[in-house]
Amino acid sequence: TPASNIRNFAIIAHIDHGKSTLADRMLETTATVAARDMQAQLLDSMDLERERGITIKLNAARMAYEKDGEPYVLNLIDTPGHVDFSYEVSRSLAACEGALLVVDAAQGVQAQTLANVYLALENDLEIIPVLNKIDLPAAEPERVAEEIESTIGLDCTDAILASAKSGLGIGDVLDAIVERVPPPSDDQEKPTRCLIFDSKFDAYQGVVTYFRVVDGTGIAKGDKVKFLATGKTHDITEVGVMVPERIPVSDRALKPGEVGYFVASIKSVDDARVGDTVTVVKSQSHAVSTDEAEPLPGYAEATPMVFAGVFPTDADQYNALRDALGKLKLNDAALRYEAENSPAMGFGFRCGFLGLLHMEIVQERLEREYDVDLIITAPSVVYKVVPRQKNSEAVVEKVMKGEALKEGLIQEASEEDTPTVLVVDNPSRMPDKDRQQHTLEPYVRLEVIAPTEYTGPLMDLANERRGELVDMKYLTPTRTTVIYQMPLAEVITDFFDQVKSRTRGYASMEYALSGYRESPLVRLDVMINKELAAPLSTVVHEQDAQAAGKVLVRKLKEFIPRQMFKVPIQACVGANIVASVQLSAMRKDVLAKCYGGDISRKKKLLQKQAKGKKRMKAMGKVTVPQEAFMAVLNLR
Ligand code: GTP
Fold first, then answer.
1. pTM, 2 dp
2. What membrane topology does the annotation report for this chain (predicted)?
C-alpha cells in the first residue's frame, strides 16, 4: 500500500463515552474480526482492564477498507484513557495524523475530553468529532455539538452522529477517516526512524515493540536496529502487523506510515521505552541511509509522582515480592522500586507510581498474578527541601521552574557553596521543621467540569484543600468548568471521591503537574505504645498539623484492634505531642471465649481466616491493619 492510501488515527474520549465499543464496531465492519470471533471490547486485552472497564495499555489494529474502489489501510492506534498515563496517550497520538473525538451525546464534553483534545492539538492532529450514543433517549446531539464548538473551538458542522452500540454511522466514520485524515508523509531519503508507541513483555517472545515508521526505507526482519534514547542495538527476529493479533511479515520492509511490531530478543520494556526512536543501522534486504538519525521529538522518561512503601504481610514472602516486582517491571517501564527496610515494617520496597490508579493496578497485579499479600503505606508526593543559606533563594527559584539541580543528602548550612536539594519521597524522611530550610511541594493545574448548581460546593471543597482559583467558565448556561492550582498532595487523598459526592456524581476531573511551590510543611509522626511508627508519618501544612493529628489518632483508634494492654496513640510534630488517645485493653472474658470450644474447630476457623488474607502488620507489640495505613489519606 502506498503511503497515500494509509490513514493512521486514534480515538480520544472521556471514560465510558464509547471508545472501545466504537473500535470493536469498526473492526467488525471492516471484517478485520469476524463477528463470531468478536469478544466484546477486543482492544482492552488485559483482564484487569476488562474488569475495571478502563483502557490502560494501548494497542493497535490494522483494517482494510475500500472507498470508491480504492483500497485503504486504516491503522487504529488505541490510547490509554486515564490521566495517569497521559505521556503514553501523547506518544500514541504522535504516531497518528488524525483522531476521532468521541463524545457521549447524552453527557457532553467532560474533563478527559478536554485533556485529550489538548494532547491531540499539541500533536497537530486532524480531529473528527463523533457524537456517540444517539440511540439514547437523553441524547442531545445539537446541544453537544454547540458545546464542542464553544469549548474546543472545533467546527461541528460535519460532526458524525453515531451509535457504536447499534452500528449506526460507522460507515460515515470510516469514510471520514479516509477523506479527512491526511495521509502520512513518505520521505525515503532520510534515515529510517520509527516511533515506539508501546511495548510489552511476552512470556514466549520477550519484549514486543509497537512502532510507527516515520521515514526512511523502512524496517524488516534481519535488520540491526538502534534505540536512540538507550543507545542499545538489537537484531530483529520478527516484524509484523496487528490485525489486531500479530501477523509476521517476512517478505518486505514496513515502510513510512505503516504501523507494526517487532521482536528482537529484548528482555525488559525498559530497553524499548515508549517515545524512543528506533533507527536501522544495518540491513541485508534494503538500502540503509548512512546519515545519523535525529531522535523524534517528545521523548521523556516517565516520572513517578506518587510513592508508597510496599511490604509483604509475612516476612517470608520478601523474596517472592522482590521477584514479582522484577517481573512486573519487565512489563511496566513506569514502575520504580528500591529496597527499603524500616524497623517497624521489616524488609520491603519503596515504589514509585505515575498516579493512584497506577498504584492500585500494581498492587492488584502483585496480589493476583504473583500471590503475595501486601501492606501498602499511604501514598505520598515528592517533596523538595533546600537548606536556608547563601544562594538558597536562587535554588528554590530553580526548583519551582523545574530545572535539573544537584540533588543529595541535606547538608549543614555552610557559607560558601550552593545548597543541594533533598528529594523526599518518604514522609518519614522529611527533616525536622526546626531546621532552617525551604520546603517545596508539587502543584497541579486541576480542571473540574460539573453542572453549574454544584459550583459552590466544589469551590468550598477546593478551598478546604488549599486550592487557588485560576479560572471559572460557563461551558453552557448549565455547566461550568473551574480551574484551580492545588497541591498534588491534596488531590491524591480522597479528593476525587469528595468531588463526586458533592456533585452527586455529575463532575469529571483532570489534573496535570504544574510545578513546585514553597509551602510551610511539617512532618506529623505517630507514636503507638510510645514507639515511633515511621510508616504512618505524613507531611502536612503547618497550620493543619494539630487538627490533622487529632483526626489521625481518632481514626487509628478505630482501626487498630484492642490489645491485652492499654495502648497510647499519639501524634507529634517534632517533640510536641499535638494529639493523643488511648486504646483501652481487651476485656478478659472476650479472650476466654475466644479460646474456648473444640480445638479442631478452632483450627479450621483459623485456617479460614488465613485464607481470607487479613492484611495486618505487627509493629512492635501492636498489630496494625491495612486500613490504618490509609487513615492519613483524609485528615479532615
Ligand atoms: P474506556 O475504555 O474506559 O475509556 O471506556 P470507553 O470509552 O471505551 O467506553 P466503552 O466503549 O467501554 O463504553 C462504555 C459503555 O457505554 C458501555 O456500557 C457500552 O456498552 C456503552 N455504549 C457505547 N456506545 C454506545 C452507544 O452508541 N449507545 C449506547 N446506548 N451505549 C453505548
1. 0.79
2. Peripheral membrane protein
